[in-house]
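> call design_seq(struct)
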């Protein structure tokens, strides 16, 4: 019998496998596709990490711990997983990201500069935001390389004895009598604890959550900038901008991949992850080109690539990290609502705490299941 079985080896599941194995637990981590894969939520070469967390102040201590753990992982894996570029949050003075980022900077004494639109363009010439825009630059922001993070977590977990099994889909599970039975397409496994990190498929593996967590189709676009020097890692911070044409986020060119942009909640398409349209189409590009033309015109060069991906949205856009009511041997981490990757390292630590100790020193009250009216059988 394993100490823990993990369902889903994406961003969160690979981190949980690493932390559990590091603490000496016997682990079986099951993934229906490859590790990593480009069918869930954790592909596309880059994910923003930022300290000036405007969504809720409870995230700041967690992201601080996440930075520490990413740096530790980098040292252990001997790979550059985290690239610091600084981060820009921009919007009108009353935009939620500006109000929230200002208050996070004040509450946690985060170094930052507040810039108006001309000062922003002077400092970072790739940015051309409307005159009434305010920008907050936070020097610790940057991006993670998600596929490499997953590979590092999974490889180091394996190095400590974890069994990481790609291409073995979990079909069902049942808890009771102090253990959990997991049935896969290949057979049956038994463990003391079960961790569900199935990303957009959480509703399929945990049906009571299906009405609460909404998988949403997203699209990312990479372009070849017209002025490449304005979009390099050294000259262009990652961004989240709340603009009249929509909220956009993006990244400098790195490793030859070009400037990358996405529109947060892209075209508001709630989908079934098994049947979603994974092709990227003209109408997808149109939405993203509008953001480039209006706010980053020097990046408006030829298309290099497009990729679709999935958010898993909770109604309040806060995470779900908890033990199941009535099933203390089963934990779930899901509903990361388009902003979870930066936290994978610390979520892995939290999941190991919940599975091995029954609780965690981290404050995860915001992520409780009890905030939703979910009836568990
Ligand atoms: C386009 C896009 C941009 C984003 N930008 C950012 C960003 O800049 N910063 C940030 O912090 N976050 C960002 N996010 C969000 C972040 O990437 C996600 O919150 C995070 O990747 C979620 O990880 P996960 O482990 O929950 O899901 P996943 O990585 O998808 O892992 C779930 C895994 O479970 C597997 N699985 C499912 N069902 C089964 C089963 N029955 N049996 C076995 N395996 C199963 C899946 O195949 C998958 O590999 C972005 C997301 C997208 C889509």
């Amino acid at each position: 019998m394993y100490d823990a079985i993990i369902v889903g080896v994406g961003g969160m599941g690979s981190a949980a496998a690493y932390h559990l194995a590091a603490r000496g637990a016997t682990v079986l981590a099951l993934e229906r596709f490859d590790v990593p894969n480009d069918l869930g939520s954790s592909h596309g070469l880059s994910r923003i990490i930022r300290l000036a967390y405007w969504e809720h102040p409870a995230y700041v201590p967690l992201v601080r711990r996440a930075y520490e753990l990413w740096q530790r992982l980098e040292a252990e894996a001997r790979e550059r997983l985290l690239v610091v570029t600084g981060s820009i949050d921009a919007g009108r003075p009353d935009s939620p990201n500006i109000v929230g980022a200002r208050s996070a900077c004040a509450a946690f004494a985060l170094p930052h500069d507040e810039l108006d639109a001309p000062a922003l363009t002077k400092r970072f010439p790739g940015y051309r935001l409307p005159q009434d825009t305010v920008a907050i630059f936070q020097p610790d922001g940057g991006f993670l390389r998600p596929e490499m993070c997953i590979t590092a977590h999974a490889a180091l977990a394996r190095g400590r004895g974890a069994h990481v099994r790609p291409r073995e889909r979990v079909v069902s599970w049942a808890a009771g009598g102090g253990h959990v039975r997991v049935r896969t397409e290949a057979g049956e496994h038994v463990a003391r604890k079960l961790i569900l990190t199935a990303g957009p498929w959480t509703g399929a593996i945990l049906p009571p959550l299906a009405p609460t967590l909404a998988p949403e189709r997203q699209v990312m676009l990479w372009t070849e900038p017209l002025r490449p020097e304005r979009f390099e890692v050294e000259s262009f911070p990652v961004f989240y901008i709340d603009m009249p044409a929509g909220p956009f986020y993006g990244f400098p060119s790195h490793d030859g991949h070009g400037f990358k942009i996405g529109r947060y909640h892209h075209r508001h398409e709630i989908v079934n992850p098994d049947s979603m349209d994974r092709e990227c189409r003209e109408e997808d590009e149109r939405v993203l080109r509008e953001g480039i033309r209006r706010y980053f015109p020097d990046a408006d060069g030829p298309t290099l690539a497009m990729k679709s991906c999935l958010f898993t949205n909770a109604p309040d856009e806060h995470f779900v990290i908890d033990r199941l009511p009535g099933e203390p041997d089963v934990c779930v981490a899901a509903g990361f609502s388009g902003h979870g990757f930066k936290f994978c390292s610390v979520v892995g630590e939290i999941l190991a705490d919940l599975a091995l100790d029954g609780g965690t020193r981290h404050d995860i009250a915001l992520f409780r299941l009890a905030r939703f009216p979910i009836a568990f059988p």
